Amino acid sequence: MRFQIALQLALLAALTSLGCGGSGPTLAPVTGKVLLDGKPLATGQVLTQPTAGRGANGSIQSDGTFTLSSGREPGAMVGTHQVAVVAYEGSGSTSPEAPQGKLLVPQRYTSTENSGLTIEVSSGENTPTLELTSAK
User: Fold this and answer.
1) Does some domain include residue 103?
2) pTM of whole model > 0.90?
3) What DSSP string describes 125-136?
4) Are 80 and 54 in contact (CB under 8 A)?
5) The CATH number of the domain where 73 resides is what?
6) What angle do CA 126, 132, 133 make, to 5 degrees?
7) Is 33 helix (H, G, I), strand (E, B) or coil?
8) Torsions phi, psi of 130, nearest 5?
9) Under DSSP, is residue 6 helix (H, G, I), strand (E, B) or coil?
10) What span, in angstroms and rounded, lies between the C-alpha atoms of 92 and 64?
11) Which portions of the sequence form the region Disordered (predicted)?
């Protein structure tokens, strides 16, 4: 009898843990472009923070394009995202520990709270253009 109860509890625990994995948040592909004063920004990072949930980021390529990923998963959560752009001269890294060159974008764009940049991610393909200006 005890063996049967223990077996049932083990089976119940195994079935419960299967349901905990879930499929996670809904992600959609995002491939966009960053322009500074109308010209492609050739380096840096795009960072996003949705209203709720996990943010996304992507490296800016030499032609100004970026593709967002959320952790190890490609894409960004569906919904509205505040956006930041960080780019330093002579460095492809945005790590605080890495030596940084001159900031290539105005300081206001380096914070999701202050940049004024947003993107709306919907299911399906998303191709936003982030237009930054040097003017204050």
Assistant:
1) yes
2) no
3) -B--EEEE-S--
4) no
5) 2.60.40.10
6) 160
7) strand
8) -95, 115
9) helix
10) 13
11) 48-74, 89-136
